[in-house]
Amino acid sequence: MRSIRYFGNGTLKMLDIPEPQITRPDDVKIKVAYCGVCGSDLHFKRAELDFLFDKENGTPIGHEASGVITELGPAATAKGLKVGDQVTYYYNEHCGSCYYCRNGQEQFCENMTGSSAAMSDYLVVREQAVHKLVGGCDLKRGALIEPISVCLHGIDLARIKVGSTVAISGGGTMGMLMTQLAKRSGATKLTVIEPIAMKREMAKKLGAEYVIDPVGQDRKEEALKITDGRGFDVVIEASGSWRACDGIEELVGKGGTLEFFAALYRSDYDYKLNLFQAFFKEIQIVGGVFQSPYAFPRSVALANVLELDPILVDGCVFEAEDFEQAFEAQMDGRTIKSLIKFD
């Protein structure tokens, strides 16, 4: 089968490898239809996280996927899944017995396994990780359920109250999903901070009341204008850019929350914080990137409710052999989300 692997130094290759086989009683084999290019994948392509990878043999990548079940293990019966079902999957598999699993924090499982190998024709995961698409959700939208689940967990951690003023830094896929979820959570004066004009316009269509161009405008000055001089109740950094982090605490109002939501920043970047200001303003700082398995069922339902068409625009789908083009299109802003097609 075809499988895209990362070899370090920004090098991706498509290999021809044997198909994975069912080995555990509760395994499920999936024929991948679409796999999205995650923002974390772009960090790999830029060679910013090479210390994480097997450069000699190549590391499988891809975790935002949808597909069709082709085979079930004999014990994969708890969810009523069957061959031919259209599904998505949660790529982390938890043990169920460690401290964190027993305390409802499976995303921190001490014995985590799973599969981030969805940029392949087939993958095999345990039944616990598989979720059937519902309500007519198609396979393209299904590939966005994993990103939705990450954003939903981030919204849960941000604890937005009805009426909270909210700013989101970054207008990529995650920023666009966060914008919609924040709006549905009751956010007011919802503001998206994004340097690309096309993405700012899309943010307004998806519910943002205000947009700020951090290149052409003074970010702090505009934030204070929007919030009557107080700063935002909640600021979510979702761009993944370390440049966007510098000084972002200045946008947060007294008693506010600052969430660093984006998955990966440069490994050599240290965020500088004026602790006196943090103390004086009682800022709460939250990290929020792991997708809780408890967010996944809600995300399956949300896939039919959220406006995803502006993300899944014409030209966002690339044949598997054109994976380099898929990465390049997302890196240079021609797509908000590139999908690699394997069916």
UniProtKB/TrEMBL annotation:
Pfam families: ADH_N, ADH_zinc_N. InterPro entries: ADH-like_C (IPR013149), ADH-like_N (IPR013154), ADH_Zn_CS (IPR002328), ER (IPR020843), GroES-like_sf (IPR011032), NAD(P)-bd_dom_sf (IPR036291), Zn_alcohol_dh (IPR050129). Coiled coil: none annotated. Keywords: Metal-binding, Oxidoreductase, Zinc. Residues 10-340 form the Enoyl reductase (ER) domain. One of its GO terms (molecular function) is zinc ion binding. Its cofactor is Zn(2+). The keyword tRNA processing does not apply. Belongs to the zinc-containing alcohol dehydrogenase family. This is Alcohol dehydrogenase.
